[in-house]
Amino acid sequence: MEFTRLLKKGSRGEDVKAVQRALHCYPDGIFGEITEEAVKDWQELHGLGVDGIVGRLTWDSLFPASTSATNLKETKRRINRIVVHCTATEEGKDYTVDWIRRVHKKKGWSDIGYHYVIYRDGSLHEGRDINLVGTHARGYNTGSIGVVYVGGCPQGDTQKNKDTRTPEQKATLLRLLKDLRKMYPHAEIVGHKDLNATGCPSFDAKTEYKGL
Length: 212
Hints:
- The chain has 212 residues and is α/β, with parallel strands linked by helices.
- The chain is built from 6 helices and 7 strands.
- Strand 3 and strand 4 form a beta hairpin.
- The longest helix is centred in the C-terminal third of the chain and has 17 residues.
């Protein structure tokens, strides 16, 4: 998430929703008294000036910079595809790299199948070592990088597909894909469903990112 404007009581919009989610407030997009109080508590806890206003310092403490091209590890493997996935988990529920790793190991895999995982708060996490072939797209693992966001199914039904990406996830995914394309300019960005018979990643990644 990038800082775009000062947020304070009376502010509205998606940026306010992002702050509210980070502070575990109801994300109605309206910066009211409860959000202001939560911001002040956060500022006090993190040694910031307590004014209830989300400026650059408060924003950066809420949304630490995600991994960028300057510190992404470059693989020695030849990469021709970047494959976007969802975890096929319910909307609104959080899952970690360790949780996914346990699920994948129960399938008999050596490690988590994906190389990068994006949590609902937009934070980016490393999965399988980028120098190792992943286990994420049958028949297409050797020359690819697997990227997954947490979510992809509506509440109460993991058999249906739904684009549940939060604004934070969308921002991080876009930034990551741009960085990876700089490193692997000939790699095609596709969704899992473009390669295998699946609904994953619950949106048309190939079309959405065709301009990168």
